[in-house]
Protein 1
Amino acid sequence: MAQLTLLQAVNDALKTEMKKDDRVVIFGEDVGYVGGVFRATEGLQKEFGESRCFDTPLCESGIIGAAIGMSLYGLRPIAEIQFLDFIYPAFDQIISEAAKMRYRSGGQFTCPMVIRTPYGGGIKGGHYHSQSTEAFFAHTPGLKVVIPSNPYDAKGLLISAIRDPDPVMFLEPKRLYRSLKGEVPEGDYTVPIGKAHSVCEGTDVTLFCYGAMVPVCTEAAKKANGQGTSCEVVDLRTITPLDMEAILAAAQKTGRVVIVHEAVKTAGFGAEISALISEKAMEYMKAPILRVAGFDTPFPYTLEHVYMPDSVRVLRAIEKVMKY
Amino acid sequence: MTVEMVQILKPDGSLVNSKIEPKISEADLKKMYRVMVLTRFLDERGLTLQRQGRIGFYVTSTGQEAIVGSALPLQKEDWIFPAYREHAVGLFRGFPLKVFIGQLFGNSEDLNKGRQMPNHFAYAPIHYVSISSPIATQVAQAAGAAIASKIRKDSAIAITYCGDGGTSEGEFHAGMNFAGAFKAPCVFFCSNNQYAISVPVEKQTAQPVIAEKAKAYGFPGIRVDGNDVLAVYQVVKEAVTRAREGQGPTLIEAFTFRMGAHSSSDDPTRYCPKSKLEEWSQKDPIKRFKTYLISKKLWSEAEDTKLIEQVKQEISDTVTEVMKGTPPSLSSMFEEVYQEMPLNLQWQKEELLEEARAKGEFLDSSEAFPL
């Protein structure tokens, strides 16, 4: 099996599906000729031609609006938005159109499409190349929100997303694009959307996380283990639809929960997980449910390393729930 | 339906026609030239600082310095809504070099307090509005400022800048349409440098002359040689006069070329033919202007050498001074989210300060910034 980076795994998934299904097209700003600013679509135009992988004008509302039109027509479009932070001109198209098309037409029209976009901090990108605003999309019925944390999942989840009958926001943690490698099978395989994955088993504290926070939590779990605390790390992989059964089972197992995301704390997705556990498994809890998250400020430039949750901050939370 | 391109200086620095030579004082001519040279060397130093890892990112405006011509017709009360290659406009209008370099370092010398990436300047004393990365957002805002000036019966006009890529965004349409509908005192300056990162302008729009787009909004569109500082000055002066006299907006397309990369993270050799770079280096705006100044006996090679030394020294001294700055404080991260800090931020700030002592090492980024 090949050792690939997350970025190579994304490229591999796109290639695999483009080979298999000639309805799959991919486009966006700088996506065609140079293969994307991160090179996620490198080589695709050369292999599949300009009608399958192409550059668009610099206009996010146009990119998503066009993708909706293509999906209605019968293609399987994959729209790349260069950074999640640049998606807002297309917000109307995503929230009012793609997300509601099936519902508002009584199932007559659907938008099977993928919006791929790098998200999150850790590359010194300042306000506009760093934010984690997955909660905006998770708050919109009709969208699926998928966030891989490793190369294997990235490929398998992206293939599932392309085949999914509904619009999928596929958020790629850019901090992990090249920072880790993992085994990725050649050719076709899928990882199901809507299924969480236990990265490591534990008995004292359960850590819920996704994207670039998975390696942070794994590191914190190792440190905690050194102090005699056994942590379970659950990678959600999809935040809508949420794997509620897996979350409740993992929360009940330890009775102590820490939720970690780099997004702003207030109204972040962690609040949803916390509420779910409070509603369905309160009687199992031995300590308050804690969140380790980004602060309620715009994403800073110089102080990025302070803003982003790290294993030390996660470890403090683990200690807190253990001491309670 | 072709719009002619306004040119005053030929690429070799001679006048196209002496009758159209604008009347600019010697002091202003020399000031524009100085800012162009300063900008060029600032770019050189900025890229070096980025490569040395002293700053995280840099955007050059090399080859586009003639944009300084658009700064001279502006008055103190006017508003500037920049994109990110208008270094020369800011420096000409009074953006202090120390503020410019301080922003690159994002330390205690940065007026933006280390909150934005390098090259995202803001300087209120000259109404140089804060730059953001999303494209063309400033175009609609400039229309708003111009409408405000009209409502208040002020004499201020607004000028906004964007690139050829920016013309594809919805806000370009929105801003042009608002300004036209309100007959607002606004000048839209589009630097058509022929590339939006890797995407050539032919793929951006089927209209080969961006100035033509003004027709759809009911006001004039002018195409100018963007490497000819005198022509840029002349067309902007006319547009600013029209705006100030209540005749409404103008779109100016400055046809130019990005001689460098999109940013310190980009490699244009992947998509831009070398021949194009060679062709455009023959049209260098600084060389062209210098030849003109020498032919007018306003400048000499000896003065030029001296200026370059001076400018390099000034940059060097300022960098040294700025580098003495310290990182922003942890608590500064929570300030100015609102005028008054709400309770959630107060709590988070206290928690962070408490934990600061126990915190681990600096987490470095895993890769260079890609854009």
Protein 2
Amino acid sequence: MKLVNKFTLWYISITLFVMLIGGTIAYYRVKKEIDDGEIERLKNLNNKTAEQIRLGVATELQTNGRPIEIAKLDSNVVSNTCEVKESSFYNPNINHKECRLTVNSYYTINDQSYRISSYNYVTKTSQILRGLISSFLLILLLLAVLIGISARLVSNRILRPFHVALDRIHHFSLRDKKPMQLPETRTKEFNELNDFLNKMTDKVLEDYNALKEFSENASHELQTPLAIMRTKLDLLMETELNDDQAQLIGNIQAGIDKLSRINQSLILLNKLENHEFETSVNIPFCRATREAAATFSELMDMHALEFESHVEEKVHLPVHPALADILLNNLLSNAIRHNIPGGKVVLSLNRQGLIIKNTGEAPEVPTEQLFQRFKKGNQSSASIGVGLAIVKQICDLNSYRISYVYEENWHIMDIRFP
Amino acid sequence: MKVLIIEDNEELANSIQRFLTHEGYICELSYTCEEAREKLTLYSYDCIILDIMLPDGNGLQLLKFIREAKIQSSILIASAKNALDDKIEGLEGGADDYITKPFHLAELHARLRAIYRRKKLNGGHLVEFNEISLDTDKMETAVNGSALELTRKEFDLLLYFMVNKNRVLSRQSIATHLWGDYTDSLDNFDFVYQHLKNLRKKIAAAGGTDYIDTVYGLGYKFNTAKK
């Protein structure tokens, strides 16, 4: 629910609650005032009549058109007391219920007890209630409408900094390396929020950059010692060696080779993340694919794999040529490496996408996980397990959709171009 | 051939120097830009091996200096920074080739020879040893004067061996040389063996000597002592 709606609902609920209580109070107050006034008047009337009796003046049994009833009582009464009775009855003449207020006053005049009664019709309870409810409902409606409209108008204004912040957070990306920079507002809470967000994102950016810089530097710094090791081994190979020593050097060479490959892949991934390969120039992807197919067909032959390639003409894509090569190389290398003896590789390219599929054993882990770094379908394999991570990164960078499924002994890599 | 090695890491510079000296080159070392500038103004070199990241400056600035001073040496950039921009900038700035650390010394040597051959006029494109001769321009091979049909890979392989005669070439180094950086995630050693087998067979069939020896546990060697 939107904040403004929540506020509106709360306001309306509070108003409703206050009005209910207020209405009840008003109802009783109004009724009491009316009754009290009438009782006071009737009492006064009774008193006047009693005074007339006391003075022996003939009393009018009619006052203001209302009959006054004078009764002589046998029993003694406490003088100057009165009782009030209220009764409702149905008046068939006006087809309406009526409320009659009767005041009985007791007097002792010249040792004779009198009861003097007078009555009048007063406004009925339900009428007061109805009037109150209808007017209160009208007020409530008016309030609700006004609150609804003004809340929207005002909230747009007041909550603008909040929406701005929300929008910025939404578009915030660590890779852009741009600080959030939320503007000052006149609301204390929003200022606090913006302040916090600014500080937090600055810190996150700083940490992220430090970490990235570290991993980049580490990769680059590793290159030189690796180069030293490799060249020293090259020199060592030239010396007189027995078979044992040669074997050991061979093993070290292989280790350094793998290390340098991992390092280079990590550097490449870093660069992809840094968007160092951005381009908007269309390159003939079909040509890159044909070249890769030609290079790999030789390797396929050597692995005794059947290779089929269908490359459509004039497929141009805005991708960095180096990335196109890496993408094709990695996919085709994988298709060879994870194949079975006498297997098959099928490559097909058209304007919609690129599909490379190969026969092979079922993967040991879910195919989606193989896009993660250092995740290998077969842990013992010689690969280092970043080939697909690089492929995925290249696809993400160029907004290609990539899927990897295993169906009926086929590993199918499907890349859809935008 | 006179080579200037501009590399701030002494160990690496020494390795290169040792390897190239063994090939009969005259090598000089510079560990800083300043030193390199001085040497370049005083002496002339056939080839320069240039590192990009130097303690007192960027190798690309040095490259600019070399080109502005109209120094005619061939330049091979050897950098740890495999950044594509550096590569393009380096090649556009007048470098002849670019090699990424960590490299094999044999590969460095092969590249150095290649750019040197390209610069050298008349006969520079010919690589010969005894009865075998390679024309790197036309990509033609001849044994005892008669043409030998080689595939591109076999030609590259033979050239690599003939440039690095009497050197033990590891299978990794050969695979990287033939297939580049990206395909080496494949286990290409079998193919190295396969190509080598075909190459030896072809040379033998043409009446040439099989100079290529297998070095146990390490790789192969073009043995000039063979008869």
